[in-house]
Specification:
Helix content: over 70%
Number of strands: 0
Shape: rod-shaped
Order of helices and strands: HHH
Number of helices: 3
Distance between the termini: 31 Å
Amino acid sequence: MEPSRNSDQENFFSEEVAKKEKRKLKALKEKNGVWFGLGMMGMVGWSVAVPALLGAALGIWLDKSYPQTFSWTLTFLMVGIIGGVIIAWSWVNKEDKEVHKNNEENDE
């Protein structure tokens, strides 16, 4: 019985080494490292900042053109932030699904 236990352990070890080798080769080929992560953070930041600034600019123009008892600037700033967060969330969610899909394909 001892030889089969060693054989099982060797098979397990060989499979683990093969998986790690595949993962490393994939990482070298795709180059999704630190720069990809920094780019993603930048994209998320801009996707929130741009709609917020556009909303604030629209609000300032409306405050000057059509004054009300409430602030158009704060209203459209909040609308811009909420819209930017939704855009960023959908983009990150799409990227996450793509990464998981690629990982599943490579595991097979």
